[in-house]
């Protein structure tokens, strides 16, 4: 699979729960259906909760990639 180009990017390292999810959700609300959002979040609570909450909202998690102590999520807005 070729690398997808993100339409928007958010770096939420250091952001505490639930603000990392809230900021991700607000950014997705500004985007068009089908657009790609790349989000960098911390390990721990954020990586456990943010992807689950986004799926519950109906968005598609295309990729979860660990980068050192952080994670990169690639999300397709539904």
Structure in words:
The chain has a four-stranded mixed beta sheet with strand order 1-2-4-3, with helices on one face. Helix 1 (19-30) packs parallel to helix 2 (45-56). It has a single domain, classed as 2-Layer Sandwich (Translation Initiation Factor IF3), CATH 3.30.110.40. It is built from two helices and four strands, in the order βαβαββ. The protein is of the alpha+beta class and 78 residues long. 31% of the residues lie in helices and 33% in strands. It starts with 7 loop residues before the first strand and ends with a strand.
State the main characteristics.
Translation Initiation Factor IF3; 2 helices; four-stranded mixed sheet; alpha+beta; 78 residues
Per-chain topology:
Blueprint: E1 8-11, H1 19-30, E2 36-42, H2 45-56, E3 60-67, E4 70-76
Parallel strand pairs: 1-2
Antiparallel strand pairs: 2-4, 3-4
Helix pairs in contact: 1-2
**SSE order in H/E notation?**
EHEHEE
What separation lies between the terminal Cα atoms? Answer: 20 Å
The CATH architecture category equals: 2-Layer Sandwich
The CATH homologous superfamily corresponds to TusA-like domain
Averaged pLDDT, please? 95
Q: What percent of residues adopt helix (DSSP H or I)? A: 25-40%
Q: Tell me the total number of β-strands.
A: 4
Short synopsis of the structure:
The protein is α+β, with helices and mostly antiparallel strands. The chain has helices spanning 19-30, 45-56, and strands at 8-11, 36-42, 60-67, 70-76.
């Amino acid at each position: 699979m070729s690398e997808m180009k993100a339409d928007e990017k958010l770096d939420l390292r250091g952001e505490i729960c639930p603000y990392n999810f809230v900021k991700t959700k607000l950014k997705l609300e500004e985007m068009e259906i089908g657009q790609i959002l790349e989000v960098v979040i911390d390990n721990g609570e954020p990586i456990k909760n943010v992807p689950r909450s986004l799926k519950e909202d109906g968005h598609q998690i295309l990729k979860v990639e660990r980068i050192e102590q952080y994670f990169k999520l690639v999300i397709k807005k539904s």
